Amino acid sequence: MVALLIVGASHAVPKAFLGEVPAPAIWMTLDEASADAARDGEVISPSTLRGQIRNGRIPVDSLRKVGNVLQITRSAFYNYLESRAPTIQRTRRAKHGRRTQAIRSVRGARGKPAKSTR
Q1: How many CB atoms within 10 Å of residue 72?
Q2: What share of the chain is helix, strand, coil (3-state, %, to 5)?
Q3: What does the CA dihedral 42, 46, 52, 56 come to, rounded to 10 degrees?
Q4: Could you report how far apart the first and last alpha carbons of the chain are, in Å?
Q5: Among the four 5, 21, 44, 61, which has the fewest Cβ within 10 Å?
Q6: What's the pLDDT at 104?
Q7: Beta strand pairing call for 63-66 and 69-73
């Protein structure tokens, strides 16, 4: 990526024109996008991203293919992450009732209170 800084551009070019210049797109592979999400605490695999592209959740105009590698713009990827519904991690339920596995293991193997050694 090449960026140019034109010193004093606001004197030579109208400010309205300078505001319309789009920022360059930053491209990354689906593997890189998955690694970026993992650094932010999100769990999303490249195959999940491919499925979301097929389902239309990620716009096709934000994608390109270089050789056999699919790339996505960083802005489109983060827009997709923000648009996802929040996920709730559920605790694992015990066989009987609403007790969690942690509580059941404290009580004993059969769900009865552990015997005191006094």
Answers
A1: 23
A2: 40, 10, 45
A3: 120
A4: 73
A5: 5
A6: 43
A7: antiparallel
Task: State the DSSP H helix or E strand holding residue 66, giving kind and residue range, or none if neither.
Answer: strand 63-66
pLDDT digits (tens, 9 = 90+) for 89-104: 555 555 555 555 444 4
Contact 88, 68 (CB under 8 A): no
Compute φ and ψ for 73, nearest 5 degrees: -75, 145
Q: Which residue has the tokens 């489109």?
A: 76
Q: Which helix (H) or strand (E) holds 117?
A: none
Both tokens of 116, joined, read 């005191």
Q: For tokens 């990827």, what's the residue?
A: 77
Cα Rg of the chain (Å, integer): 26
